[in-house]
Hints:
single chain; about 180 residues; Glutaredoxin; two-stranded antiparallel ribbon; 5 helices; cytochrome c-type biogenesis; Thioredoxin-like_sf; Thioredoxin_domain; disulfide bond
Amino acid sequence: MRRLRLFLPLAAFVLLAAVLYRGLSLDPTDLPSALIGRAVPAFELPDLDSGEPITEQDLRGQSALVNVWATWCYSCRVEHPYLLELADAGVPIFGLNYKDESAKAREWLADLGDPYTRTIADKEGALGLDLGVYGAPETYVVGANGTVLYRHVGVVDERVWRDILEPVYQAGSAR
């Protein structure tokens, strides 16, 4: 019995190492969303340009992307040219300007181009909180019926679009 006690620290170490290894091998961009399969939360926020209200109903009728961005986000600047390409190809993208200053956001879009069908000004981050946003950039695929189909954390580029988002987007258009 005494000999078994000698192996307890070793067994605890092996167990702890296994738990840590499992945690380190997880993909940090694979953050599940509780909203997958559910409707976009109800909201009413101003359009960045016009100030007119935008609601969750504006996201219905066609499959679309909702891209969370901000002027303070370096990665948002990295993905912006590809979003312009997607918009030019006819993909509807709603911008969610997250916890940002509206004047800076309008200047950003004037300087870099505007890929967004409409831009939701979420100054306080209320919609971002309801969506479960961790930060920017994040992109949600919303089906034609207003259901959240997928959430991508990080930069959208050609590979992410082709391998992940486009198939979900196409499937959402068929619903």
